[in-house]
Design brief:
alpha/beta; five-stranded parallel β-sheet; metal-binding
Length: 580
C-alpha cells in the first residue's frame, strides 16, 4: 500500500527491506532520522556510536562477519570517518555495506557547505543520489545489490530537502539474505603496504566496471523534451526544481548514480542538444567532469555555488515564468535561533561573558552562546576542536596558563572527540580549563542518547560513562561540578580554576529543559511596582523575558522558573510563581 514517507524514513525502510542487520551511526542533521527510524524495526540492531569513525568501523566489522550493515552521518561527519572510508574502498566487503551521507546546502544546521560527491571520487566509491522518498527506498536496496556485486561499500548521498521532505513510496517485504560465512583472507583485509598495493589495481578495475554499469543503469534516465536547444544534466533536489520550473520543455538527463559517471551516455546526450547546462547545488562537480570529457557545458556561470537552488532561480535562467514557486529570500521576519527558555547553558555563558574570558567553543546547541547578548564564544570549528584548540592557544601564548581562556564542550561532543584533546592537555601539560556542558542528552540533533546518559538508542538502560571518573583517569586532578542555574557558584568555581596551577575540568550539569522527564517550576511573575526598567534581566537573552512599556514582562507559556534572571534583579522585581 502506498504511503507518504520522509526521505530519511524511506532510507530506513530500504534498510529493512534489503535485510540490513546492523546499523551504527552518529546523529547529525539532516541524517539523524534514518537511524532513529531503523531502530523501530526489531529485525535491525541499531546503535548510536560515540562518533562517525567508530560507526563506520562497526558497520565494516558487521559486513565482514557476513551481515548487511549500514552507517549514517552528515557531511562533516564523513570527514571524521574519512580514515576508514578510504581504506575499506581497498578491502571491499563481505556482505553489503551502505554509507549514507547527508549534505546541508544552505547550512541550516552546519558549519560549512561541503559537497560530499568529492569523497566518492577521491575514495573511488560508487555514490547513488535519490531525488525523492521513493528513490530513497529503492536506491538503498539497490546499493546493497551493487555493494555485493562489485565488492565495495556504496555511498548514498542525501541532502536536507530530500531527507526532510515527504513523497509517496510503496513499501515492500523484507528479504534477509543468509549470513555470508567469514573466511580469512589476509591479502584482502589486512591493509599493510604489501597487500594494499595489490588492492589498488582492483579498485581501479572496479571503478571501470561500475562506470560501464552506469551506462545502461535505469537510475540514470533520459527524459524527453520538446525543445532540443537546451539539454539539462541534473540530479537530486536540483532535478525537482528543474521539473517544477520547466516541465518537459527541455530534455533532461537525470542521474541517480553521480559517481562513477557514464561517459558514453553523457557524450550521446550532449550530441542531441545545442546547449548543455548542468543544474546542480554547491560545487560544479558534474560540470567539471563533463568539461574533462571535452564537452561544451555551462553550469556555475548560471547558478551560484553558494547555498540552495530554487525553482525561481532555475526559471529565471531559462527565461520561464518568474513567479514559479516562492522565493527563498522572500520578505519574511527574521527568526534568529536562540537558546530555549530555561536552557542550562545560559547561566554558564552569562558568567563567562561577565568575566570577559576568551572561550574556545564547540559544536552543539551551546554554540548559540556566541550570539548577543551573551556573546561568549570566540571560535567554533568542529567536534572536539575546543579542547584541542585551547591547548594550542595556551602553548602559543608562551606559557601554559593565561588565566583568561576556557574551552566549552557538550557531553555528547566530549565523548565524540573531546576526550582525546583532554588527554593531550594532561599529557603535554597545558594548564587549560575545560568546561563540559552536561545537559544529559545530545540536544542539537533532537535528544539522542549518548554514552553519558545511561540509555542506548532504544531507550534501554546501559553502561553510563562517569565524566568525573573519566576526566580523572586521563590525568586531570581538579574536577568540579557546578549547577549553571547558580550564577554565584559558577563564577566562584570558574575563577578558582582559572587561577589554578594545573589543568582542570568544570562540569556544568543540569538536564536540557526540553527533556520530557524534567519537572519545571511555576513561571515567574513581575512585580511592576518594583521593576525600574533597568533591563538587567535582559542580559541573559532568555526568550521568555521582554520589556513592554518600560517594565519587564515574563511569558508564562515559555518560562520554566529556572530563576537565573532573578539573580540579576537588584530590586527583587522577579518573583517565583505559585505552583499549580
Amino acid at each position: 500500500m502506498k504511503t507518504l514517507m520522509l526521505g530519511n524514513e524511506a532510507v530506513a525502510r530500504g534498510l529493512f527491506e534489503a535485510g540490513c542487520s546492523v546499523v551504527s551511526s552518529y546523529p547529525g542533521t539532516p541524517s539523524t532520522e534514518i537511524t532513529e527510524y531503523a531502530a523501530k524495526y526489531p529485525e535491525i540492531y541499531a546503535e548510536w556510536a560515540p562518533n562517525e569513525k567508530v560507526a563506520m568501523e562497526t558497520a565494516f566489522g558487521a559486513c565482514l562477519a557476513g551481515r548487511r550493515s549500514f552507517c549514517g552521518m552528515k557531511h562533516v561527519g564523513l570527514n571524521v570517518a574519512a580514515d576508514p572510508l578510504f581504506t575499506i574502498s581497498y578491502t571491499g566487503v563481505n556482505a553489503g555495506m551502505v554509507i549514507a551521507v547527508a549534505d546541508d546546502a544552505g547550512m541550516h544546521s552546519s558549519q560549512n557547505e561541503q559537497d560530499s560527491r568529492h569523497y566518492a571520487k577521491a575514495a573511488k566509491l560508487p555514490m547513488l543520489e535519490p531525488a525523492d522518498s521513493s528513490e530513497a527506498l529503492q536506491f538503498t536496496k539497490l546499493a546493497y545489490t551493487l555493494s555485493e556485486q562489485f565488492d565495495t561499500p556504496v555511498l548514498l548521498k542525501m541532502c536536507t530537502r530530500i531527507a526532510h521532505s515527504q513523497s509517496v513510496v510503496e513499501p515492500g517485504e523484507r528479504l534477509e539474505p543468509a549470513q555470508k560465512p567469514y573466511e580469512k583472507n589476509p591479502q584482502k583485509y589486512i591493509m599493510m603496504p604489501g597487500n594494499a598495493i595489490r588492492r589498488h589495481p582492483v579498485v581501479e578495475e572496479r571503478t571501470r566496471h561500475l562506470a560501464l554499469w552506469a551506462e545502461s543503469a535505469p537510475i540514470n534516465r533520459l527524459e524527453a523534451g520538446r525543445d532540443h536547444a537546451v539539454g539539462i544534466l541534473t540530479s537530486s533536489t536540483s532535478y525537482q526544481y528543474v521539473k517544477e520550473a520547466l516541465g518537459d520543455t527541455y530534455p533532461v538527463l537525470k542521474l541517480g548514480m553521480v559517481w562513477p559517471l557514464p561517459e558514453k551516455l553523457l557524450r550521446d546526450f550532449a550530441a542531441t542538444v545545442e546547449r548543455l547546462v548542468v543544474v546542480e547545488e554547491l560545487d560544479g562537480f558534474l560540470e567539471d567532469e563533463c568539461r574533462a570529457l571535452g564537452l561544451a557545458v555551462e553550469g556555475k556561470a548560471l547558478f551560484s555555488p553558494l547555498g540552495e537552488l530554487s525553482q525561481n532561480q532555475v526559471a529565471e535562467q531559462f527565461g520561464a515564468a518568474p513567479d514559479v514557486g516562492v522565493s527563498l529570500d522572500a520578505g519574511l521576519p527574521a527568526r534568529p535561533p536562540v537558546m530555549c527558555a530555561g536552557c542550562p547553558h545560559r547561566g554558564l555563558f552569562y558568567t563567562l561573558h561577565k568575566l570577559g574570558v576568551t572561550v574556545m567553543g564547540d559544536i552543539g546547541c551551546y554554540t548559540l552562546g556566541a550570539v548577543p547578548p551573551l556573546s561568549a564564544i570566540d571560535a567554533t570549528i568542529c567536534m572536539g576542536a575546543s579542547v584541542s584548540g585551547i591547548h594550542g592557544f595556551l602553548k602559543a601564548s608562551g606559557h601554559s596558563r593565561d588565566g583568561n581562556t576556557v574551552a566549552v564542550i557538550g557531553d555528547s561532543t566530549f565523548m565524540h572527540s573531546g576526550v582525546t584533546g583532554l588527554i593531550n592537555i594532561a599529557y603535554n601539560e597545558s594548564n587549560a580549563t575545560v568546561i563540559i556542558l552536561d545537559n544529559s542528552i545530545t540536544g542539537m540533533t533532537g535528544h539522542q542518547q549518548n554514552p553519558t546518559t545511561g540509555y542506548n538508542l532504544k531507550g534501554d538502560p546501559c553502561t553510563k560513562i562517569d565524566l568525573e571518573t573519566l576526566c580523572r583517569s586521563v590525568g586531570i586532578r581538579r574536577v568540579q561540578v557546578v549547577d549553571p542555574y547558580d550564577l554565584a557558584q559558577c563564577e566562584r568555581v570558574i575563577r578558582e580554576e582559572l587561577s589554578a596551577a594545573e589543568p582542570s575540568v568544570v562540569i556544568s550539569r543540569r538536564p536540557c529543559a526540553l527533556l520530557k522527564y524534567v519537572k519545571h517550576k511555576a513561571p515567574l511573575t513581575v512585580r511592576t511596582d518594583r521593576c525600574v526598567g533597568c533591563k538587567a534581566c535582559m542580559k541573559i537573552g532568555c526568550p521568555a523575558i521582554s520589556v513592554t512599556g518600560g517594565k519587564a514582562q515574563v511569558d508564562d507559556t515559555l518560562c520554566v522558573g529556572c530563576g537565573v534572571c532573578q539573580q540579576l534583579c537588584k530590586f527583587d522585581a522577579l518573583q517565583a510563581g505559585e505552583e499549580v
